[in-house]
Design goal:
alpha+beta, 4-stranded antiparallel β-sheet, 11 helices, single chain, globular, 640 residues
Length: 640
């Protein structure tokens, strides 16, 4: 599609795909327990690895992991300042292994503490009550069952504390050695029980429909007598309560009158927990809530003083927080739409702070596009929270637009630095991200409004968002694309197949094309957990009637209606949305002669981890959208 570049776009510095999707210079910093060092992620041989550096004598940074194949994203300080743990999978297979690094012996290789082929670790914890130990869920015995295990970090000795009898979805282990298990009833409700030789004793039951991804958070209190839980029992909003493990009684700990707990870390473990806890004691310091922006409520007087000082360091939202065991020195980063990840050291004794680094120092916040909260009203009157990003230096009228759809769908968009939104805005596109019904974080009524609405009202919300942008003059109706990953990829395919007249182009990153084959191909250990999410919201393919409905809600069922130009990106090792989901769609379209660009990354899974893959995929998307929406030319070397 030919169209002129929006006036004023050329005045904005051109941002390359590499500048936005390449590796950060440094990121993910955390202070050591003794407060003398920081660890962070930084490139080594083209991959993010863990580096350690002195805080008081900077300049001695050294790489302590050595992965040349796949970037490391998750690491953990242990209570021994000489030992550090990190997690890694193989080619995106999500079979996470835990590795130990000896910081005092630079020549010693990393040790795999879970050396079981095909097994994966979930729920790694380093409880303050068990120094030198790590608790984890591990399916080394049976791929479908996760046992509760304890690893001696120094020796690598592994002890099975509880063998999964087959129905346990998660374990809790108190400092006194008592076991509690989370199971699911025949009705789909979530049951927490005390586990002993005499058999399980029920403590509490939670309605499964109110917790599609399980009860989150669910953290033992330091003394092991209770569990801090996110609950919406009797209310629409999710608040923090303490569940007494003896009586099963819930007592409110903290709540916000308008906002839900920020539980995004349930889906994205790299994001901060809603519970800010003391490193040494495990006591609760503060609670995170999320609306248009984040709100942190301190529940500890000392932390209230610290929080006040920290929040004065940036006009962003407080992100990752770590402190030494004394609570004196703090390393914090900030979420910001145009100044991502700025990281500071703060000393509460002196009141002094200094900037440690900015992950992307080459990005000038003044040239990046603000992410503005807006509200879209759906056709049935439901208010849909959304975010609008408009190009800098461009009249916001009649623009080509990209509708970005979040994954999940039990997740949400939020105010943050979004490199894709920035790339698109830099190219002259308006960018709209709408939290359609069924998104989390807006109360259980908003969540439940998505039940049975895949390819129905959930998709109508996206079309209504396009109509909203057009009616307000932001978007040119003939130049709107839909772009998403995972569920967002499914939504992009729905846009091309179920509402082909709405979108001029569609970009699908690892999206579902056939709900029936998708649900039949998920890993076996996941299937029992589908009752309160996919089976409830979409259907169970084991039921013939529901299978037919799932097929009707699948993009592949209307593949003959697709005339929209399409770009598909897929990881060959994806175990969530397997490659066959993309293959069958692409094959059907190519058989009809429909334009479809297909990019497969052999060393990726459900997401793009290695920077060259991300750069390649988003460069392809950049060029594809420029071709079909007429935005700013992609990767033009003549640009300033």
């Amino acid at each position: 599609m030919s169209a002129s570049v929006p006036a004023g776009a050329d005045a904005v510095p051109y941002l390359s795909v590499e500048a936005l999707f390449g590796s950060p210079v440094r990121a993910g910093a955390s202070i050591s327990p003794d407060g003398t060092r920081i660890a962070c992620l930084a490139p080594w041989h083209g991959r993010l690895n863990v580096w350690v550096e002195s805080l008081d004598d900077p300049g001695d940074a050294r790489c302590v992991t050595a992965d040349e194949t796949r970037s490391v994203h998750t690491y953990h300080w242990t209570d021994d300042p000489g030992l550090l743990l990190y997690e890694q999978d193989t080619g995106g297979d999500e079979n996470w292994h835990v590795h130990r690094v000896d910081l005092e012996d630079p020549d010693a290789p990393a040790v795999d503490l879970t050396p079981f082929p095909g097994a994966r670790v979930m729920g790694l914890e380093l409880p303050a009550s068990r120094p030198g130990k790590a608790l984890l869920h591990l399916n080394h015995r049976d791929p479908a069952e996760f046992d509760l295990c304890e690893v001696d970090i120094a020796t690598g000795a592994l002890t099975v504390l509880a063998q999964n009898p087959g129905q346990v979805a998660g374990w809790l282990y108190t400092p006194d050695g008592e076991l509690y298990a989370q199971t699911q009833t025949a009705e789909g409700d979530i049951e927490l029980s005390r586990w002993s030789a005499e058999g399980p004793r029920r403590i509490a039951v939670f309605p499964g429909a109110d917790h599609p991804l399980g009860v989150s958070p669910a953290q033992l209190t330091p003394d092991g007598s209770g569990v801090w839980i996110g609950t919406n029992r009797g209310t629409d909003r999710t608040r923090l309560a303490r569940l007494d493990l003896a009586s099963g009684e819930e007592t409110e700990v903290d709540s916000h009158p308008e906002l839900d707990l920020d539980t995004r870390s349930t889906v994205f473990p790299q994001l901060p927990s809603p519970l800010i806890r003391h490193r040494r004691t495990g006591e609760l310091l503060g609670v995170r809530y999320l609306g248009e922006r984040q709100v942190i409520r301190p529940v500890d007087p000392h932390f209230a003083e610290v929080l006040d000082a920290l929040e004065r360091l940036s006009d962003g939202d407080l992100g990752a927080v770590s402190c030494d065991e004394s609570g004196r020195r703090w390393v914090v980063s900030f979420t910001h739409d145009r100044d991502p990840g700025a990281t500071y050291l703060y000393d509460h004794t002196t009141g002094r702070a200094r900037l440690l680094f900015r992950p992307y120092p080459h990005l000038d916040p003044r040239t990046l596009a603000p992410m503005r909260p807006v509200t879209v009203t759906a056709r049935d009157g439901l208010a849909l929270p959304a975010y609008l990003t408009l190009p800098v230096g461009v009249e916001p009228a009649g623009l080509p637009m990209v509708l970005l759809v979040h994954g999940g769908p039990w997740s949400r968009d939020s105010w943050r630095f979004d490199p894709l939104a920035q790339l698109l805005a830099n190219r002259g596109y308006a960018v709209l991200q709408v939290n359609f019904r069924g998104s989390t974080g807006y109360g259980k009524k908003f969540l439940a409004a998505g039940i049975g609405e895949l390819a129905g009202r959930m998709h109508d919300d996206l079309v209504d968002a396009v109509d909203w942008a057009v009616a307000r003059g932001y978007a040119d109706r003939d130049r709107v694309a839909v772009f998403g990953g995972s569920y967002g990829g499914y939504a992009a395919l729905l846009g091309a197949s179920h509402t082909p007249g709405v979108f001029a182009a569609a970009v699908d990153f690892y999206g579902v094309s056939n709900l029936v084959t998708f649900l039949r191909s998920v890993p076996e250990f996941v299937k029992p957990q589908l009752a309160n999410n996919w089976y409830l919201y979409a259907g169970d393919p084991a039921d013939p009637e529901q299978e037919a409905d799932l097929w009707a809600r699948s993009p592949l069922s209307r593949v003959d209606a697709i005339r929209t130009p399409l770009l598909v990106v897929q990881g060959a090792g994806d175990v969530r949305v397997v490659k066959a989901e993309s293959d069958q769609l692409v094959d059907a379209l190519r058989a009809r002669g429909v334009e479809v660009e297909y990019l497969v990354k052999d060393d990726e899974g459900h997401g793009l981890v290695n920077p060259e893959n991300a750069v390649d995929a988003y460069r392809a998307a950049d060029r594809f959208l420029a071709r079909h929406l007429g935005g700013r030319a992609a990767d033009d070397p003549g640009r300033p």
